[in-house]
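Students often ask what a holo structure prediction actually looks like on paper. The answer is less mysterious than it sounds. You provide the chain, you provide the ligand, and the output is a string of discrete structure tokens encoding the 3D arrangement of the protein together with iron/sulfur cluster.
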Amino acid sequence: MNEDLIVYSIRKCVDYLTDESELTVLFQGGEALLEYDSIRKALDKLGHQPKIHYQMQTNGTLINEDTMNMFEKYNMHVSFSLDSHMESHNNLRSKKSDIFLQKIFNVCEMFQERNLDYGIISVVCKNNMDDLRSMFQEFIKRGIHTFAYNLLWPIGRAKSEGLNELVVPTTQLVDTMFDVYKDIYKFNIEQGYAPFKKIHERNLFMLWRRLFYRQLTNYMCMNAPCGAGINTLTVDTDGQVFPCALMLPPLEDGFQIGNIYTDSMSYLLQKDSLVKHRNLAQIPQCASCSYKAACAGGGCGIAYYHLKKDINAVSIYCDYYYEILSAMIEHAMLQMEVRILKNF
Ligand code: SF4
Ligand code: SF4
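The corresponding structure tokens follow.
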């Protein structure tokens, strides 16, 4: 990616900000660190930008002292994908059980030594389902406090590679994720913290806050319509603008809403787009669901559009969300030794 495009895009967004608003810039790929030189030069040109939060998603394999210096200098939050490492982990495990994702944990140590912000992302599928609880224990042991177990969307490359076979059946998914939920809850309480204060898995944490504290605006992907094209835009390497990275041409053509060089920010943010038409009132199952505020339709509308060519398609994880939210309520009642819930 051209460094001038990065500089131009960020300056254009910053110029559009009001006094109260801030900007989050996320670098993602492919592998974002393949563009390390362009990103570093661009950020150096932009200099200190107090209203910008930088983030990057990477598989971590290209991290070295230079990239660490850039993360530190620009206070960048970095998320590592664990999945590419899981493959080698699974290959290695049968031969040598004490090798557990050493590579990525070495990178985590580099972040811990510099006290930098980072987290781990893993996509939940049949291959790693049985590892989720032990991975959580390993995270604790290694001082890793923020991680995300994202549900697998069998779209794009995942679809062509037949990964829809790896979607975890609802009962197994609910049982395991609820076990993870209880593990996290218990760990935090035993350490003297509020339930998800010290260590948390992002998606369960967001659901928990939405369900019990009605914090409904905390994560743009858990809204319908979501934040795509409303408070987030994706700029591709050629300057074309899309509402979200999940609407880029490799998945489907036709979602471009403009060009960062030629269109104004207000035009881009006001441009109509399919993703803005996801509406729970148009999904009969969700419209009458008692969890619709907390669940907001069970994940990414565009992911389900790619599967069913209907922006108001029911989530493939609807049953999972219904069951896990019910389990969270039941768990809370047991914790409070309450048998009957009134006026919830
Ligand atoms: S399209 Fe999907 S991934 Fe993109 S912002 Fe919306 S919910 Fe999130
Ligand atoms: S649990 Fe299912 S029906 Fe209820 S809001 Fe979520 S996706 Fe819709």
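The mean pLDDT is 90.
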